Amino acid sequence: MRNAKVRKLFHFAFIIFHLPFYISSSLGTIAYFTFNHCVSLLLVALVVPIAAAEPQREEILIGRSAEGREIHCEVHGTGPDVLMVIATIHGNESAGTPLVAAFGDWLVAHPEELVGRQVVIIPVANPDGMAAKVRFNPRGIDLNRNFPAGNWHEGDVKLHGETPLSEPESRAVLQAIMRYFPDRMVSIHQPLECIDYDGPAQELAEAMGKVSPLPVKKLGGLPGSLGSFVGETLKKPIITLELPRNTSNDSQELWDTYGASLVAALRFVEEAKANHESP
What we know:
Number of helices: 9
Number of strands: 9
Order of helices and strands: HEEHEEEHEHHHEEHHEH
Low-confidence stretches: 8-55
Helix content: 25-40%
Largest sheet: 7 strands, mixed
Distance between the termini: 33 Å
Strand order of the largest sheet: 3-4-6-5-7-9-8
Shape: globular
């Protein structure tokens, strides 16, 4: 618990002092991070004991959409190994939302799975698009092309936004990433029916593929996508879990088919370590 509290303090300090992003529409985005201000907070956290009971499942407001709808994340556990799962960043690809709802219920029913772990779920990253059943947000921007990846400038600016992070929804997702610093991420999409990956995520993709009806397939990072930003710019493993186009929206049916993949992502570090240590 104490280590988790120290980690949260570090994350909070990072959010405050790492900005600003320096943005150039012609050269892409350059970000620099300042850690000097974090040192004092870390030293204090190591000396001063912090003990407070935390709820097992916590809902946190991380932003609002272009039309003012709330964007939440659901947080389970306080451990240092963090998995983040994002659904419905494209409003007409909404099967991920009932799937992660079932994942959240499973985590509540299996608290032992959260020992040493934390799971952060963003059930609906594009609430306006989901309400209208369209891919983009109301400003006509593809939110999954609006992140400050090194390849952002290679895309169509009309669809990607005038600058990276021009949209409140993508800023909300970034806030969650910077607050919780996930060790790995899963972003749920439709309709390409595969397990795609970016960054150092091949082993994670293969672990998920072993318990999934979907094949592992490397599609390649697109300009300004979350996969390009997290996987190629931040060098963190990220999976794009592509469900079928006409998949059911029934939460239990989705969980029965794809839930094991999310559990594999949750357990990945522990199982990978065990596999590497086995003779």
